[in-house]
């Protein structure tokens, strides 16, 4: 299923999502690698097989093999980090913040692509996973690297739309399955 098929699969009540999906992917000002790395990382993080199967082939086509693997790596490491750091932040005992994390995350230091691209993908996944501490950390790295707020916002707009499309299509699939 390609992007157009994905848009066509959205029900009438989700017309805004259809328009936004076309806009955030089709009219993005991001360079191809940043765009498709963000799309792929968010499609993985959204946990929607429908969305992932639809967007992965186009992401693979638009990314170098290194960028393709790095985007998947961003989704993987952020799946772990977002839970860990969000939980540590939400606990009322601040002493957890002083403990060593003890989690391997070497990919962040050597992602195989431009550091800013990997940070952007990590930020988008962190937005999807609602980790404020990770969002702040990645946004600060991006801003120090000279990445503008518009680019940062573009990444979390993609995250928001991909998540919403996945939620909607998975719900529709479940409703159709229950009706049978």
UniProtKB/TrEMBL annotation:
Disulfide-bonded cysteines: 131-134
The GO terms this record gives for MF are: disulfide oxidoreductase activity; hydroperoxide reductase activity; peroxiredoxin activity
* GO BP terms, alphabetized: cell redox homeostasis; response to oxidative stress
Which InterPro entries does its entry note?
A: AhpD (IPR004674), AhpD-like (IPR029032), AhpD_core (IPR004675), CMD-like (IPR003779)
Q: What is its EC number?
A: 1.11.1.28
Q: Which reaction does it catalyse?
A: N(6)-[(R)-dihydrolipoyl]-L-lysyl-[lipoyl-carrier protein] + a hydroperoxide = N(6)-[(R)-lipoyl]-L-lysyl-[lipoyl-carrier protein] + an alcohol + H2O
| Active site per the UniProt annotation | 131, 134
- Keyword Oxidoreductase attributed: yes
Q: Which residues form the Carboxymuconolactone decarboxylase-like domain?
A: 94-173
- Supply the enzyme class, top level: oxidoreductase
User: Which keywords has UniProt assigned to this entry?
Assistant: Antioxidant, Disulfide bond, Oxidoreductase, Peroxidase, Redox-active center
Segments spanning the bilayer are none
State how it assembles. Answer: Homotrimer.
Function in brief: Antioxidant protein with alkyl hydroperoxidase activity. Required for the reduction of the AhpC active site cysteine residues and for the regeneration of the AhpC enzyme activity.
Q: Which HAMAP family match?
A: AhpD (MF_01676)
Similarity annotation: Belongs to the AhpD family.
Q: What is this protein called?
A: Alkyl hydroperoxide reductase AhpD
